[in-house]
Amino acid sequence: MRKIDKVVQAIRSDLPDIATDYDKGDSDLYRFVGVESPRSYNFVLDAFYLLEDTQLAKASFRNVDFQNTDFGTLYLLYYGLLNACYMQQQAILVLCRELGVTDGLEPIKTAEIVSFRNSFSAHSSNRGRGDDQHSFILDRHAMRIGRVEGYSSNRASGHFYLQANIFQLLNDWDESHEEVFGLIGDRVYGDQLCQKI
């Protein structure tokens, strides 16, 4: 189990105990996760829910039989995975902002899988317009062998290709936030983190 799963699971399993303890109030929940306001607490809680859901999406993707999956489903799976990683990036950045974690963020902000998501899955409305902004078309046959690759033909300088092994991108992404989740766990649990996970 990855550190992200351990930290999220530990925090999410302790929250109901605090919430249902009649001797405790909302301020105890805020204090537990390390924030001071209901707004910050809601940001943190939403981020944890989103991280749990996107971890499930990533696990399902890893179990797909790509050779025997139709192309339509493959498109949904690849676009879904790329967007799940983008959603994780945003959730992690929100968590770090709300919890005051500032170290280890550069690999998260510059994640290659999110860059691939922006090239293959993002719309021009959220990427910007102009000669250097262009969309890419996924190669359906590459998806069968676990690759995210394709080309852009609407680039000012002509055709441009991108390619990568999707599992390598995913593994690199998972490794990029190990440090940050250690820091998030330390922020919430302090020295008790090792006992929790």
What does this structure look like?
The chain is mainly alpha-helical. 64% of the residues lie in helices and 7% in strands. It is built from eleven helices and three strands. A three-stranded antiparallel sheet has the order 1-2-3. Strand 2 and strand 3 form a beta hairpin. The longest helix is centred in the middle third of the chain and has 29 residues, at 71-99.
Strand residue content: 5-15%
Low-confidence stretches: none
How would you describe the shape?
Answer: elongated
Helix content: 55-70%
**Order of helical and strand elements:** HHHHHHHEHEEHHH
Tally of strands:
3
Average predicted confidence as pLDDT:
85
Termini separation: 10 Å
| Cα gyration radius (Å) | 19 Å
Content-based structural category? mainly alpha
Largest β sheet strand count, sense and barrel closure: 3 strands, antiparallel
Largest sheet: spatial strand order: 1-2-3
Structure annotation, total helices: 11
